[in-house]
Amino acid sequence: MDMIHVKDIVKSYGRLPVLNDVSWRVKPGQFWGIIGPNGSGKTTLLNLISGVEKPDQGEIVLGGKPLASYRRKELSRKLAVLQQDGLPPVPFLVREVIEMGRFPFQDWRGKESDENAVKLLHEIMEKLELKELEDRPLSMLSGGQRQRAALGKVMAQQPEIVLLDEPTTYLDIRYQMHFMELVSSWQREEGLTVVAVMHDLNLASLFCDRLLVLQEGKIAAEGTPDEILSSETMEAVFEVKTHIVSHPDVGAPQLLLKTEKRLSINERG
C-alpha cells in the first residue's frame, strides 16, 4: 500500500495554473526530495499533501485513506510538517515548544494519554542536543538552534509522514549538514516516510532515496539521484550547464556548475 498517493491533481490560483494533472506514489519508508525551478509548484504540492490547501481537481490519499476524511488530531498523528523558517524568535521556552508537539495525544483538558511522554521528550532533547537550552526562550537562540527545536516539536508528534519545506534555507553549511543528518537518522530509526522540498541538489542527492522533478506544474522526471542528476536533465529543467561527479565518500552524484573560463592572476600578468 502507498503511504502517499497523489491522483490527477490540478491546482490554480485565480487564472494562474500551478499544478496540472500531477500523479505520484510514495511508498512507506522512502525519503523523497522534490526539486525544480522556482514557481514549478513544489511548495504547493507539499501544502496539498499536508491538507493546508485543497486541490481544484483530483485526490490525495494517505495510508489508503482519503486525506479529506481525516479529522484534525488524527491527521496530526499521521503527518507532521516543518516549514523553512521553522519557529519565529518568540518568548516560548524550548521545552514548552517541544511539548506542543504532543497536542495530538492530549484530551480537551490538555492531559497526555501516553505515560511515557515525559521520557520521550527527554530523549528528543538529548538527541537534538537541546537539554542545556530547554529553559531558554526561542528569542535567545540562533537560527540553527531554533530549527533544531522545531524538529524536536515535529519528533514529539511521532508521525508516520514528515513533510519538510526547504528546511535548510536559513542555515549555514555546518547546520545544513547537521540538520539533514538528524532527519536522516530519525527516518531510518523509525521507518518514517519523508518528503522534502529542496533547493540544494547536492544535499538532496546525499540524503534522498528518490527525487521528483517538477517543471511548470508538471512532473518532468522521477527516480533515484543517479537517474535524475544528469547534465542533460539539469540543462533541460534548470537551464544550467553542469559537470556531474561522484562524491568521494558515498558515491552520490554531485553537481559542479560550468562557467566561463577566467584568467588566473598569473595569466592576467
Automatic annotation (TrEMBL):
Checking PROSITE patterns in the record gives:
ABC_TRANSPORTER_1 (PS00211), ABC_TRANSPORTER_2 (PS50893)
Membrane-spanning ranges: none
Instruction: Write out the entry's keywords from A to Z.
Output: ATP-binding, Nucleotide-binding, Translocase, Transport
Pfam families noted in UniProt: ABC_tran
Q: Which GO terms describe its molecular function?
A: ATP binding; ATP hydrolysis activity
Every ABC transporter domain range: 4-241
Identify the domain of life.
Bacteria
Tell me the PANTHER family matching this sequence.
Answer: HEMIN IMPORT ATP-BINDING PROTEIN HMUV
The name this protein carries in UniProt is ABC transporter ATP-binding protein
Q: Whose protein is this, by species?
A: Paenibacillus anaericanus
